[in-house]
Design goal:
It is a single chain. By secondary structure, the protein is mainly alpha-helical. It folds into two domains: 132 residues, no CATH class; 40 residues, no CATH class. The chain is 55% helix and 11% strand. The chain contains four helices and six strands, in the order ααααββββββ. The strands form three sheets. It has a two-stranded antiparallel ribbon with strand order 1-2. A hairpin with a 4-residue loop joins strand 1 and strand 2. It is elongated.
Length: 175
């Protein structure tokens, strides 16, 4: 699943990085050359002007790289949520190597930017992703999964049929 806004942001990011490098590299070369040729006080002013232009050219490069990183993270979260059926923030955090709070913050930003379906939301009490199409547990053919209730804390746990699972909330084994 990939939304139009993610496609657009990826394209805009590539254009921004390319334009920043295309315009910025010649100015950086001239700036470095000028640093070795300063003879008069007026040359220092020219050097500062070129340094300012270098900084302005760096802005689209940095912004484009941030947008590309966010698009990569969207794909990563999308694969985990829609393909692997991981809905808990803790499970997503473990799968990505980030903290649950970072995952919550990044997903909230992506939901606000309409990257994900409009009906997707984060349940901050249960600390999980809520999608109405998966409200009754995992409904994907071929995954052979079931939703069971943890006997220790009462939370729903999605696990493979005939396999033991682990409660995402309290860490208890679930069979």
């Amino acid at each position: 699943m990939k939304s139009f806004s993610v496609h657009f942001n990826e394209l805009a990011a590539k254009i921004m990085v390319f334009a920043g490098y295309l315009i910025g590299i010649p100015f950086v070369i001239v700036t470095v050359a000028m640093m070795f040729m300063i003879d008069e006080p007026g040359d220092i002013l020219s050097l500062f002007i070129f340094l300012a232009i270098d900084l302005v050219c760096a802005v689209p490069v940095v912004m484009g790289m941030r947008m590309k990183r966010q698009a990569r993270r969207f794909r990563e979260y999308s694969d985990l949520i829609f393909d692997e059926r991981i809905f808990s923030l803790r499970g997503l955090a473990e799968a990505t190597g980030r903290t649950p709070e970072t995952v919550r913050h990044e997903l909230a930003a992506m939901i606000d930017k309409k990257y994900f379906p409009e009906d997707m939301r984060i349940d901050n009490i249960r600390r999980e992703i809520v999608l109405p199409q998966f409200a009754d547990g995992v409904k994907s053919a071929g995954l052979n999964t079931e939703t069971v209730i943890c006997k220790n804390c009462g939370s729903p746990v999605v696990k493979r049929i005939n396999d033991a699972g682990m409660c995402e909330y309290c860490g208890s084994a679930v069979v």
